[in-house]
Design goal:
The structure is a single chain. 18% of the residues lie in helices and 30% in strands. It has four domains: 6-21 and 173-318, 3-Layer(aba) Sandwich (Molybdenum Cofactor Biosythetic Enzyme, Chain A); 23-46 and 139-172, Alpha-Beta Complex (Molybdopterin biosynthesis moea protein, domain 2), CATH 3.90.105.10; 51-134, Molybdopterin biosynthesis moeA protein, domain 3 (Beta Complex); 330-404, Beta-clip (Beta Barrel), CATH 2.40.340.10. The chain has seven helices and 26 strands. It is of the alpha/beta class. It starts with 5 loop residues before the first helix and ends in a 5-residue tail after the last strand.
Length: 406
């Protein structure tokens, strides 16, 4: 099977998503990071009454045509307890920020422009009608559609939903993402490692990526390089009704790479295998019944890069995010010269600095896909198109900031 481009691979992954997962209702306090399942309209008007934007006095502006002017203070209006009566000519109400505007008043004089007094206050400045008054509905009105299905509920949107009067929110359930590491060479952190073994790091990185994207990670452990062990793990993913199964390693065609064989035996419909990118060429995609499948390379950096490029958009599509496949790159400048690229799209680990308002990305000298220390010290990936010519320091480039995903 020929290599396909990154854009084509992502398009096929997103096209294989059957649709958003079902919704559920959760208390607003439990909705952080969740994705709205339906559009959300305001249940109330905000503010529900005309309110003062400053501390001072509620007055009739016409009384201040000539200043200084002396007005009789007839009461107080504070947040949660407004003045019960109207304000007439020659009268004022002491008022505080957020408090209701009394009937008859049409302006606020800030306290700095007065000589505070009781029962008389002297006002030294003119005001125009409406000055320092927040009208009812300034923020939004009952029935107004303010949040859309597919939006992720961060602090700003949760605050808005609460102000709209919603105690519970309709969200998509978290897509179930099963993660299966494979290989005789792997042990878990803290387990004794033989002389030919290494510690499995990929499951923990992918779990973090999955959960940050809005999914629920299901750890299937480590499958050994036997068809029986792989079959058992695949059956576990099916029993868990995983929406997405991620395999880590073993998806190539070597003598000991049995993942593709086990999946094919289990009924996998292969979508594609091998993508023209670096790192991450041996990427596999398919379906196993109702479960989507992404087979990621075993090299740690390859696995994480493929997680950013393909796993995150797949999860966001399962959540109904209309922007799931949007371009994750942004503009930057190269911090050093780069050679011409070959036939694969390159994702180079780089450090970031900000110079005169520009993000400057300096590629690491060593780009081996097994080097986690280099990745951990990097803040971005420099994206280089296939056949990109030599590029000099200071030239424009496209980058992906790692802190957005992992």
């Amino acid at each position: 099977m020929a290599l396909i481009s990154v854009d084509e691979a992502l398009g096929r992954v997103l096209a294989s998503v059957p649709g958003p997962v079902e919704g559920e209702i959760v208390p607003i306090g439990d909705a952080v990071g969740r994705t709205l399942a339906t559009d959300l309209a305001a249940l109330r008007t905000q503010p529900p009454f005309a309110a003062s934007a400053m501390d001072g006095y509620a007055v009739q502006a016409a009384d201040l045509a000539i200043v200084p002017a002396s007005l009789t203070v007839i009461g107080r209006s504070v947040a949660g307890r407004g003045h019960p009566g109207p304000v007439g000519p020659g009268e004022a109400v002491r008022i505080f920020t957020g408090a209701p505007i009394p009937d008859g008043a049409d302006a606020i004089v800030i306290q700095e422009d007065t000589d505070l007094g009781d029962p008389e206050v002297e006002i030294r400045e003119h005001v125009s009608p409406g000055r320092f008054i927040r009208p009812a509905g300034l923020d939004f009105r009952e029935g107004q559609l303010l949040l859309r299905a597919g939006e992720r509920l961060d602090a700003r949107r949760l605050a808005l939903a609460a102000a709209m009067g919603h105690a519970e929110l309709p969200v998509r359930r978290k897509p179930r993402v099963a993660i299966l590491a494979t290989g005789d060479e792997l042990v878990r952190p803290g387990e004794p490692a033989g002389p030919d073994q290494i510690v499995a790091s990929n499951p923990y990185a992918l779990r973090a990526i999955v959960e940050r994207a809005g999914g629920e990670a299901l750890d299937l452990g480590i499958a050994r390089d036997t068809l029986d062990d792989l079959r058992r793990a695949i059956d576990t993913a099916r029993e868990a009704r995983a929406d997405l199964l991620i395999t880590l390693g073993g998806a190539s065609v070597g003598e000991h790479d049995l993942v593709q064989a086990a999946l094919t035996e289990g009924g996998m419909e292969l979508g594609f295998w091998r993508v023209a990118l670096r790192p991450g060429k041996p990427l596999m995609h398919g379906r196993l019944g109702s479960t989507m499948l992404l087979g990621l390379p075993g090299n740690p950096v390859s696995s994480i890069v493929c997680g950013i490029l393909f796993v995150v958009p797949a999860i966001r599509a399962l959540l109904g995010d209309p922007h799931a496949g949007e371009d994750p790159t942004e503009a930057g400048l190269l911090g050093r010269d780069l050679p011409a690229n070959d036939t694969r799209q390159d994702y180079m680990r780089a450090r970031l600095e900000r110079e005169e308002g520009e993000l400057v990305a300096t590629a690491e000298r060593r780009q081996d896909s097994s080097m986690l220390a280099t990745l951990a010290a990097s803040e971005a990936l420099i994206v280089r198109a296939p056949h990109a010519p030599e590029a000099a320091a200071g030239e424009r480039c496209r980058i992906i900031r790692l802190d957005r995903f992992c």
